[in-house]
Write a structure and sequence with these properties.
Elements (H helix, E strand, L loop, with lengths): L1 H6 L2 H6 L1 H7 L9 H18 L4 H6 L2 H15 L5 H18 L4 H15 L8 H18 L2 H5 L4 H6 L3 H17 L7 H10 L1 H4 L12 H15 L7 H15 L7 H20 L14 H16 L4 H17 L3 H17 L4 H16 L6 H15 L5 H11 L14 H26 L6 H15 L7 H16 L7 H20 L1 H7 L5
Helix pairs in contact: 3-6, 4-7, 6-7, 7-8, 7-9, 9-12, 12-15, 13-16, 15-17, 16-17, 17-18, 17-19, 18-19, 19-20, 19-21, 20-21, 21-22, 21-23, 22-23, 23-24, 23-25, 24-25, 25-26, 25-27, 27-28
């Protein structure tokens, strides 16, 4: 058989295909029919690839139908043929089909269907070679079409994946994601997203309970990061469809369990926020049968999604996402929504963030986000700023307290808004920060016998200078003068630990004041009374 296949020319094989294939089932049981057929299909594939002019010949003799039926008969006749042999035949047939009839997706689907039929009713594949062949079978259409969307239209594709065990299923899911990313494929309808997430379900949720204990952390992170990248590849310009896509993704992701959510929720949130930014430029009154996609609707989804994240021990991440959503709500002019997101952030801070370092970071994030808000009325803003200043003074370490309190001074003086310029409260914050800095020095003195560097005082001096320049009437040159003298005395005192960094910081600050004095004009006059 091998001689016949190798010796005779390709055209000859095409015309005598039926006779040649008819002989296959009649061969001795020990003959390796698999190799014979694979070689034949390989030869014909190369022949088809050599020139486009020969393709009509294949159609004329119905090569695909004949090969397909011959393979079916051979597999039926050889009952004891190992699974790997049968799958290898289907891989050869699929390769042949993709070469000769790439446009006929129904043929491709038919080959996959035949393979499913052979594998169905059997336990999950254990044979490593068979698993490799299945991965080759599933990868072939991706490589040929360079477009995962085409693979999504093959109805038998997910059924073949279901025949794989958990580990190989994950490998194949990664191949699918990498194909989408390599070709920069945009998946643009909710139905396709459903099919896609059904294919990669091995990465999104635990398919078998046993495997969770022996997860390799690095592999797991890489897999989840790939899923996160994939979420950004799902996009549609039409807001209604985009909202459907977001809902479809959310449904799948939420089943992921506590280890996966911290990886997969953030991209979903940012994808939804991108939709919100787009919607805020449009008017909500779209004429249509369905209720239109509105920012409010998306924000409700966001709130529920982040809530799930905060319940799986990722409070700091959830807090950051709440603040991102609050900023988006601020831009959409939705005061109640923004207030609700801030409330959630504060609740998380109070109930979940216990580590003192994490508290400092979280508080500075909250203060920074709150400072940029311009949607709040007086009452709501007061409530939130009061909350932020209150928490600042309750931090564990005095230096952290001091820095958080002087950061709060920015909440009462916002440059780009007309409303908020409350000089008195700025001064109150700065005086309070000074008191805390003093207390910190005294504590250091009492416990270590030396009072530590003057860095905090220099930082507060810089805040005084900032507000002085911005024209806050409560910050006077006399106050700045007093603070400079205080720092100089502290530095000369015997109990202060010398610290080159804070000395350099203070020297730079003094240089800056001198520079402003020499500048002349309005600023020069302003800085004139300060003696350095």
């Amino acid at each position: 058989m091998d001689c016949i296949i190798q010796v005779f020319p390709d055209e000859y094989h095409l015309q005598t295909l039926e006779t040649l294939l008819g002989a296959c089932p009649q061969l001795q049981p020990t003959v390796d029919v698999k190799t014979v057929l694979s070689r034949l299909m390989e030869r014909l594939s190369n022949y088809a690839a050599s020139s486009a002019d020969v393709l009509p010949e294949f159609l004329q003799v119905e090569a695909f139908a004949k090969l397909s039926s011959a393979i079916g008969k051979v597999i039926e006749a050889h009952v004891d043929m190992p699974i790997v042999g049968a799958v290898a035949l289907y891989v050869s047939l699929l390769t042949f089909t993709l070469h000769v009839h790439p446009e006929r997706l129904d043929y491709v689907n038919q080959v996959l269907g035949a393979c499913v039929k052979k594998l169905s009713g059997k336990p999950k594949l254990e044979d490593i070679r068979a698993k490799k062949q299945i991965v080759a079978l599933l990868s072939a259409p991706l490589e040929k079409y360079n477009d995962i969307v085409t693979a999504l239209t093959l109805s038998n594709y997910p059924h073949v994946m279901d025949c794989l065990d958990y580990e190989t299923n994950k490998v194949m899911a990664m191949v699918i994601i990498q194909s989408a990313m390599k070709n920069n494929t945009c998946i643009s309808t909710a139905d396709k997203v459903e099919v896609l997430f059904e294919l990669i379900k091995g990465l999104i949720k635990d398919l078998d309970e046993t495997a969770t204990d022996e997860l390799d952390e690095e592999d797991f992170k890489e897999e989840q990061n790939s899923v996160a990248c994939l979420v950004h590849m799902l996009y549609n310009d039409d807001s209604e469809e985009m909202l459907k896509i977001i809902c479809a993704v959310r449904k799948h992701i939420m089943a992921g369990g506590s280890q996966r959510l911290p990886f997969t929720v953030p991209p979903l949130i940012f994808s939804a926020l991108r939709l919100v930014r787009k919607l805020q430029d449009q008017d909500g009154n779209v004429v249509g049968e369905e209720e239109p996609a509105t920012p409010k609707k998306v924000f409700q989804l966001l709130n529920e999604t982040i809530e799930a994240l905060s319940s799986v021990s990722s409070p700091e991440l959830a807090l950051r996402l709440y603040l991102q959503c609050a900023e988006a709500a601020n831009d959409c002019d939705l005061e109640p929504v923004a207030y609700e997101f801030f409330t959630q952030a504060f609740i998380l801070y109070e109930e979940e963030v216990a580590d003192s370092k994490a508290q400092v970071t979280a508080l500075h994030l909250i203060i920074g986000a709150l400072q940029r808000m311009n949607v709040f009325g007086v009452e709501n803003r007061d409530t939130l700023t009061h909350k932020a200043t209150g928490h600042s003074a309750k931090l564990l370490k005095k230096p952290d307290q001091c820095r958080a309190v002087y950061a709060c001074s920015h909440l009462f003086w916002v440059d780009d808004q007309d409303g908020i310029k409350d000089g008195e409260r700025v001064l109150l914050c700065l005086k309070r920060a000074l008191r805390i800095a003093n207390a910190a020095q005294q504590i250091a003195n009492a416990t270590r016998g030396c009072s530590g560097p003057v860095t905090l005082f220099v930082e507060i001096l810089n805040k005084y200078l900032y507000f002085f320049e911005k024209g806050n009437p409560q910050i006077t040159s006399a106050a700045i003068q007093g603070l400079i003298e205080l720092i100089t005395n502290e530095m000369q005192s015997d109990s202060t630990t010398p610290d080159p960094a804070s000395d350099a910081f203070f020297a730079s600050t003094i240089r800056y004041i001198q520079f402003q004095k020499q500048k002349g004009g309005v600023m020069g006059e302003k800085f004139g009374p300060i003696k350095v």
